[in-house]
Amino acid sequence: MEGKVEDIAGALSGGRDGKKKGGIKTMPFIFGNEVSEKLAVVGFSANMVSYLTEQLHMPVAKAATTLTNFGGTASLTPLVGAFLADACIGRFWTIAGASFIYLIGMTSLTASAVLPQFRPPQCAGDVHPCEAASTWQLAVLYISLLLAALGAGGIRPCVVAFGAEQFGEADEKEREKTWQFFNWYYFCMGVSMLMAVTVVVYIQDNVGWGWGLGIPTAAMGISLLSFVAGYSMYRQAKPAGSPFTRLVQVGVAAARKRRLPPVVESDVLYENDELDKPISLAGKLVHTSSLSFLDKAAIVTEQDELSQPSPWRLSTVHRIEELKSLIRMAPIWAAGILVITAAAQQNTFSLQQARLMDRRLSRSSSFLVPPGSMTVFTMLSMLSTISLYDRLLVPIARRLTGLDRGISFLLRMGLGFALSAAATLVAGLVEVRRRRAASVISVFWLVPQYALFGAAEAFASIGHLEFFYDQAPESMRSTAAALFWLSISAGSYVSSMVVAAVHRYSGWLGDDLNKGRLELLYWLITGMQVVNLGYYVLCARCYTYKPVRVMSEKRGGERVQAAGNNV
Question: What is the C-alpha to C-alpha distance for residues 447 and 121, in angstroms, rounded to an integer?
Fold first, then answer.
């Protein structure tokens, strides 16, 4: 028993060579990639329409489509990166390879912004009317964006899982740092996004696109070198084969044995510690009574006893519980989509509101606040909330609840959902005030809704990340992080559908906001979020945490722990 505990501890720490791997010392190398990626993608995305229309002379509609395609692709490619990390090459090599691909894409994009032959000639009135970009110039752009999207697909799902992996789950003190890591991760991401929409965008507009793209490109190159240089310090979990194949095998085995009588005693179900060892280093999943129709895949029949068991006919309890975990996660995952739908209005209608308001810093000031800069209040609120949560709320809540993370991630997500609904409600009230005011009101009336959205993101998004990482099967944690980005993509598409439907079937969203009823759209989304919150509360109350059987050196044996609940 003692040797087995040591084997598990050694596997989680990266080896028995006497040199402890992982820990806080690896964070600068890991966070560097995320910061550089966000500097590049957010800085460019925030200003992409300007670059495409002013530098490449694209029509506005085509530029908007290009921006949408790039965003959608960058949100879907994490599924590919997660599969490579979990099934084939591991998280380190996925991050390193994706960073290199990203660097190539950003380098070619920077070169096209610097070298005049990659862009059409500048417009000069009647002397030199605007020429559209040639086919090969557009090809360079599209290839650069595709490489950047592929690179982002390898970085986004793996950085969060690889970073959390550096803190051992077997050690209680390090497990506390795991939950702090998610706050640190999102805080660093927020700081880099804040720099992108302020410093990087300012350089692009006032210094030049060469510098505006070159600085994030250089940052990515430096971060790639530093990340690879830290290779010997990282804890690295080995890929355990395709998790999707295992899930399909469970489904096929259960379908083949669907006519067998229901399982009464879980003790008779098939277990194989040696077979499950590569995918259960942190502990084996134990049997749960939910979704019992899948348990038939672990019933040992006479045919299974007479021949070598095939994974397409017989599955272990651990593998069945992997599939159950993902199925149980689905309703919680779906609940997070509407938060993104609500937040998406900040980049569209909230900007239009800002354009129609008094954007002076003060009555005597001539400086006008750019509408796009109002998102700064969202990021400042998010960063402030994360800091207060980590330094003030968690220590107090930890004494009351006994949880490492202070409050459960399900409660954290619920608070975020409630704040998001409050934000859209306030947005509608401000719009009523703006339209009915006798004179143009200050743009700073929008600060409360931006701040509430920032606080909502600090609770809902980080809670979502914690939920995916903790409740996903151990061998699918990169895939779980990819699901987080998939929810963001789905939320954006739902926002487009809601706005399109409202625009088509109502008169709320005219070209002139002063003649429309934008507040009704906000309140429609508020109502949808209230219903969604009720749905989420029901799902959270019925949710079953995955139970894990782990080795306990202190207690001299095994113990069952409900992951996420620290029971």
Answer: 41
